[in-house]
Amino acid sequence: MAKFVYMFNEGNSEMKEILGGKGANLAEMTKIGLPVPFGFTISTHACNAYYDAEKTIPAEVKEQVMESLAKLEQESGKKLGDPENPLLVSVRSGAVFSMPGMMDTILNLGMNDETVEGVARLTNNPRFAYDSYRRFIQMFSDVVLNVDTYYFEKLLEETREEKGYTADPELTAEDWIEVIKGYKQIVKKHTKNAFPEDPTEQLFLSINAVFDSWNNQRAIVYRRLNKIPGHLGTAVNIQSMVFGNMGEDSGTGVAFTRDPSTGEHTLYGEYLINAQGEDVVAGIRTPQPIKTLKDEMPEVFQQFSETCRRLEQHYRDMQDIEFTVERGKLYILQTRNGKRTAQAAIRVAVEMVNEGILDKKEALLRVDPDALNQLLHRRIDDNHERNQLAKGLPASPGAATGQVVFDADEAELLAKDGKKVILVRQETTPDDIHGIVAAQAVVTSRGGMTSHAAVVARGMGKACICGCEAMKIDLHEKVFQIGGTVVNEGDIITIDGGTGEIMLGEIPMIEPELSEEFQLLLTWADEIRDLGVRANADNPEDSAKAREFGAEGIGLCRTEHMFMDSKRIPIVQDMILAESFEDRKEALDKLLPMQQGDFEGILEAMQGLPVTIRLLDPPLHEFLPDKEELIVETTTLKITDPDSAELAEKEMLLKKVRQLDEFNPMLGHRGCRLGMIHPEIYEMQAKAIFYAVAALAEKGIEASPEVMIPLVGHVNELKQMRELVVEAAEAVQQEKGLTITYTIGTMIEVPRAALTADQIAEEADFFSFGTNDLTQTTFGYSRDDAEGKFLQTYIENKVLPENPFAALDREGVGKLVETGVKLGRQTKPNLKTGICGEHGGEKSSIEFCYYTGLNYVSCSPYRVPLARLAAAQATI
Length: 876
Ligand code: ADP
Ligand code: MG
Ligand code: MG
Description:
The protein is α/β, with parallel strands linked by helices.
């Protein structure tokens, strides 16, 4: 018989697939002797069996549950439903991958009109017994019977008001008895049935509900967002209850072993005295920081800190721990590797190496390259005045500006329109996930550092402020008020998640810098990686940034941006419109010194590191005015001023624009085809490069240009362009009387180039795979059309696994890259190869580049740190 149920002392942390994350860790903690209330786990296989049996619990599973329950009863000396000595349990879902807040937990199961008396007697605390019972009714009704918590909360609020109480602890046992009566009426009214009093029935109904919650809307959304497969199923943990609501010597809390925002090695978390379970996370009462536990319960605090240390040592990672104190005794209810910001991930990894917990390679694998993006984001410029409205808890660092929205759907809608929004809520629930995804940042007026909003935002690397109690939100009017200031929906605010400040209006931001730990981690990455990292940059500022972030050269310097400069565009247009060779030459002569200046700046910034300069690539019409506009202008002039020189000029221009018009510019007259037809353009650019090198040489500055010919499809194209560049070099060398070191290579970005790479390598010193165009030409997609029209549908329908423009398509485009490298090196074993498409900054593509034997990847300066780390991870 298949085993579907495991006692906590039968499992371990390796069994996540079967026991779910929570169950496996409860078993592990039991194994190492930590104070975990005993229980058992119904496996994920049972969940799948439940779905296979059309949502009924198979008899086999039921049997095993009953057997395990008997063991639990024996171990605890209590019995489910026994009025004399009742066992109470929690029913906790737990999937393989942690899905915080996605599934529902039921506490105090086993309570009914009889057992509550038993609990009251045994604990000598009727107030506690009835409070626990009413909590059970409320949770069970919400999760299992689908009766909204709202009705219960409303009744409770009415009772409080009637009695003149401000908080729940003021309610007496008699008050709770009354509330329970009311609760049962609510259940009766909404379900047409009495509240189920039979504990075994309660248990199985709850198990059903946990299994069902695997497929509730918010779980599905969460899985989609986090790419968690739906077939895994969830486990169910049945665990004997311990009680944090037994009085002033009891409590419940959540803590991280290190600060999940900054990574600082200090206990971080919060707790509530005389409270149960979800009270802390739900943000109903604002909890106390863990530090004060030291004064309130010194012994418990001591024991807790030790347990934290032990768990960290055991799991070799920062832990996120849920605990409860019952009458001064500590219990651990959950542990898992804590979610953290990128900043924290780096600091924790580096410090754990220093503490001897991890080695460098392990530390490098602990940081997700994708998460680095959040660190390289801009932050608020300290030189500007902060128009501070209020301060909340700094729950997730980063700064953001956007318009205020109060609703997740609205946030999503506006974001789709390209608006930047900040989601403002009293608190968030899993139903708000899509709004958090769409927003730049989240602000809540209630809840602590471990509230839902805080946890989710940190996980996504979004700025977040929680528990900003000064903020009075009126969802009806769609405004919030802080002191005398009223902020309406749509107003712009800026927030700083690192300080908790909320500010009115937009505040200038500044560029990021790398922290010391970050730098250190990256030097470890550099020690380990074999793959070079360069940057794509086409001006001195970006080049400097690239070097600062650790780029070892420039892999792609595009020259077309230099042509777009507003002062130059008229000269560029003159060059394009020239009717004679002389006219064209005149324009080019004017452009040459400008280009030379560009190259000098970039080469100087790179201080002798290699700089791959691509000669002009886009179709020429991109430099001319828009055709439709010209038609309108000439038509207007024909009526208003038919004899003007302006009209004649515009008509000329229109004629030329029409000549240059192409049916399919992406496959038209561009790349080296420009140089083939107008060699004087490439000649000017080549000379500008060499003059720049000569000028720098005079100043004693080294430069290593690599001249790159784009869009070659046939070796003869490269051969001809190579001759042209060599001639330019010779001319400049002769004129300046010096020797210039340079190389000439090509971009491999059409399939024919990859397929004939052996021939092309005869003329090339290096290959740079231009995977943006190579993806377009391999798939036959024009990117702009594909991404706008059908690619999304393809991905949603799983026609394509991923957007091939984001992550390199290994099977198709990748095969061409492999072929290109292999054939090229057949001809020239030391042929230098790199990649310069956007894939150069994407981790799975970087891994592919490493396996394919490329020498380097090149990406935007801001992605250089990511690429250094991803390259190291690929090597490990
Ligand atoms: P989630 O996955 O949403 O965190 P959990 O199953 O961890 O849900 O339960 C939430 C909280 O309920 C726990 O942090 C703990 O405080 C409380 N809880 C769960 N089981 C027990 C138990 N057996 N005794 C006391 N409290 C419990
Ligand atoms: Mg939990
Ligand atoms: Mg290209």
